[in-house]
Amino acid sequence: QKAPKKRAHWNQRRRRYDEMLSSNEPTQLAALVGELAAVQATKADKKQVLSFTERRLFDKVKDLLARELAAVTGKAAETMRDDIEQHLEAVA
Fold first, then answer.
1. Cβ atoms within 10 Å, residue 4
2. What's the CA gap between 42 and 2, in Å, rounded?
3. Residue 80, Cα to own-chain centre: how many angstroms?
4. If you ran DSSP here, which 8-state letter would residue 6 be given?
5. pLDDT single digits (tens) 5-46
6. Which residues are CB-contacts of 65 (< 8 A; sequence separation ≥ 6)?
7. Which of 56, 66, 80 is nearest to 29 (CA)?
8. Which residues are CB-contacts of 26 (< 8 A; sequence separation ≥ 6)?
9. Structure pTM?
């Protein structure tokens, strides 16, 4: 996924992120992980980092997605979290 070219104000992004997060749908969670990973990569290119709130949200959504995937696959949530992290590193 790519980071948006022009990012909305934080309050608008936060509302959208909260809606995606509260849907608890794996596809929405995966889309949010992808978007935040893309934003992180874009910021890294500019020698910037995610804000504290963005990092917390990114960690939260990765954990939720890992738990959803663990419930479906029967694997441990920690294993799924590691798999997500490895995939994000591979595509970065």
1. 12
2. 9
3. 14
4. S
5. 666 788 888 999 999 999 989 999 999 999 999 999 989 999
6. 26, 29, 30, 33, 80, 84
7. 66
8. 65, 68, 69, 72
9. 0.87
